[in-house]
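Ligand: manganese (II) ion. Inputs:
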Amino acid sequence: MNLLEYEAKQILRTFEVPVPKSTLVLASNEVVPAVPIVLKSQVHTGGRGKLGGVRVLKEGDTTSVAKEIFALPIKGELPRTLLAEEPLDIANEYYLSLHVNRSSGTIELVAHTDGGVEVESQTDFVRLEMVNGKEYAVESETRGIAGRIAEYFGLEEKEFLLGELLEKVYACFIQSDALLLEINPLILTKDGDLIAGDCKMTLDDAAAFRHPEWAFERPAGSTNFVTLNPKGTVATIANGAGLAMATVDAVKAVGLEPANFLDIGGGATVDGIVKSFKSILDFPCVTAIVINIFGGIVRCDDVAVAILEAQKQFSHLPKLYIRLSGTRSEEATKLLADANLPLYSDLPAALQELTT
Ligand code: GDP
Ligand code: MN
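Predicted complex:
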């Protein structure tokens, strides 16, 4: 799972890794802090700087620039959040990352002296093994690495500061069950501080069970959609991979042919769910859609609104067999009842109706 920059920086902050002071802008009609400010589009892809998604503002109306960024897709993704940061006085930008090297079974540190937006054109990265067979790097190890990186960065006088930073970043990486933690740029300010200017973090989905605190924004419209049979007659929409699989199995068990598997995910938005309906309409033989939602992070009323929106947008929607329970299901029930859409108390009841 890839995090947004602000989510990654929140995690860095809890491990006391220095990040710029910031606030979030959650909607395009929200009041935005005045200049000087850096406004950053929160999307799940990198390279925002070059695409207009990072704006350093020294004068002018920040609110109108925020509106522009909200309306600017970055590699197809529109931000739902902007990060508004205090600008830094940059003396130099470095590249620093940790990742799990699966072939060597180690955690590798990768560094480059020329961090920033052009780092992808570099080939001569420095690679060091952070830890070798031990669960935690011992202090002396981290400190040894700090010495080498300080020398490589030409920051010998910053060896202690860099050592502290590496220890915190390493602890953050391990305790967060990260697969990748990339700080680019690591900014050296004119005051001599080292601050994470940007952070990209990938967490290990398999470790989610021990992180009840994980609740992150997912890209809008990003779903786990798998075509099972292009000639299938029943489409499925569910949330959570387990429930989505069970839904497909249940359709199959009553002798019907599921066209797809779809897990709308934890942070599903109305927009994203409407898009899912659009994908389903590409199947020529689908005559029914089974919607099976157990609302946890997903809100049932969001799903209901999306269903109504899809009915409005797509004139020939196949017949719907809906089962919703959990978060805000009462609101959802009311919305659907007002639109004369029947709801089923459980999946077997919905499927029985479908087969008769
Ligand atoms: P990315 O392009 O998606 O990786 O976005 P970054 O957050 O890395 O920003 C790209 C570039 O914007 C950085 O390399 C910096 O040169 C510049 N930048 C980012 N934050 C600041 C800041 O706080 N102050 C200033 N002056 N420049 C910044
Ligand atoms: Mn960056």
